[in-house]
Write a structure and sequence with these properties.
heterodimer, A: 147 residues, Nucleotidyltransferase, domain 5, five-stranded mixed sheet, disordered C terminus, B: 146 residues, alpha/beta, 6 strands, 16% strand
C-alpha cells in the first residue's frame, strides 16, 4: 500500500500579523507618551500622599546648588539667573492662564530659602495652586524612582 | 509588432510598512519617559493684604524646622511622628486651629515636605483633619511677624 504523502509544512515564521501588532504598539506609545518639559535630575523628597499633577502645568525646578529653571509647561525649561526672575515668569504665566497650576520640582537637600523665594514669587504673582513634586515613600523606607 | 507593456500592480506596496512601524516603535520607546508626575498639592492664599486673615501666634501651633531636621513645636523639640498626637487635643477643641510651618532658611527643603506630608495625613492617622496649614514666606514674616 502506498502511503499518502504528508502535507507540506510552511517553514517560515508567520509574519502577517506583525504589522498589526506594531501599529498597536505605536498607538500605545503615542497615547502614553509624555514629553517632559523639565529634564533636570533632582533628588525628590519622598511623601506618602501623592496626587496626580495636571498636564501642561508650569514647572519650576531647583537643583541642590540653588540653580532655578522654569517652564510654562509648553516648552523645555530654561535657567533663570535668580529667584527674582521667577516673579516675572510667574506673572506672565498667570496673566495668560490664571488658573494654571505650578509644579515645584526641588531637590530635597536644597536650602529652604530658595524654595521660600519661589513660593513668595508665586504668591505675589497670584498663582492659585502649587504641587510639590515628590516620589513614592515606600513601606520599607527605600526611595522610589528618581525625578 | 506587438509592444510588451509592463504590468502595473494594482495594490499599494505594503512590504515596507512593518519596517516603518518598527522604526516608529523604537522612536517612541526611546523618547518615552515615565516621569514622576505626582506630588503634594497646596493652595496659595491670595496675596491681598486687606483680606488675608492674620493668624495670632498665640492661637496657633508653630512648627519650626531647624537645620538638620530638628523640629521645635511650640518651643519644644519633638519627633515628626509625635506631632499629630500633640495636635489632636488642640484640633478637637478648635478644628480650624492654624498650624504654622516655619523652616529655617538654611534647613533642607525635604524636612519641610516631611512635616507637610505628616500634617496632610492627619485625617488617616488621628481621624481629624488639619484644615489650616500655613507656610509663611520670609517676606510675610518680615511684614507681619511680631
Amino acid at each position: 500500500m502506498r502511503l499518502k504523502a504528508r502535507g507540506t509544512q510552511n517553514e517560515g515564521i508567520p509574519t502577517a500579523s506583525m504589522a498589526d501588532i506594531a501599529f498597536l504598539l505605536i498607538i500605545f506609545f503615542m497615547v502614553t507618551i509624555n514629553f517632559e518639559v523639565d529634564k533636570t535630575t533632582v533628588g525628590l523628597p519622598t511623601t506618602e500622599l501623592r496626587y496626580e499633577i495636571p498636564k501642561k502645568a508650569a514647572y519650576i525646578s531647583i537643583i541642590a546648588s540653588g540653580q532655578i529653571r522654569v517652564s510654562s509647561g509648553e516648552e523645555i525649561s530654561v535657567p533663570v539667573p535668580g529667584p527674582e526672575n521667577v516673579l516675572s515668569f510667574a506673572v506672565d504665566v498667570v496673566a495668560n492662564n490664571p488658573g494654571k497650576p505650578f509644579v515645584l520640582k526641588a531637590d530635597k537637600n536644597v536650602p529652604y530659602r530658595y524654595v521660600d523665594s519661589v513660593i513668595d514669587a508665586l504668591k505675589q504673582a497670584r498663582a492659585e495652586k502649587i504641587y510639590l513634586l515628590s516620589q513614592q515613600d515606600t513601606v520599607d523606607g527605600a526611595d522610589g524612582g528618581d525625578g | 509588432m506587438k509592444l510588451k507593456r509592463d504590468k502595473i500592480s494594482e495594490e499599494i506596496p505594503t512590504s515596507s510598512m512593518a519596517d516603518i512601524a518598527f522604526l516608529l516603535i523604537i522612536y517612541f520607546m526611546v523618547t518615552t519617559t515615565f516621569a514622576a508626575t505626582r506630588g503634594l498639592d497646596f493652595s496659595l492664599p491670595k496675596d491681598d493684604q486687606d483680606n488675608t486673615p492674620l493668624v495670632d501666634k498665640e492661637d496657633s501651633v508653630l512648627i519650626e524646622i531647624l537645620v538638620g531636621g530638628v523640629l521645635i513645636v511650640d518651643g519644644r523639640a519633638m519627633p515628626l511622628d509625635a506631632i499629630l498626637e500633640y495636635l489632636k487635643p488642640k484640633l478637637e477643641r478648635n478644628p480650624r486651629k492654624p498650624v504654622i510651618i516655619r523652616p529655617n532658611p538654611d534647613a533642607e527643603y525635604g524636612y519641610m515636605v516631611d512635616v507637610f506630608d505628616e500634617l496632610r495625613q492627619a485625617k488617616d492617622k488621628i481621624d481629624i483633619e488639619v484644615k489650616n496649614i500655613s507656610i509663611p514666606t520670609q517676606r510675610e514674616i518680615d511684614m507681619f511677624w511680631y
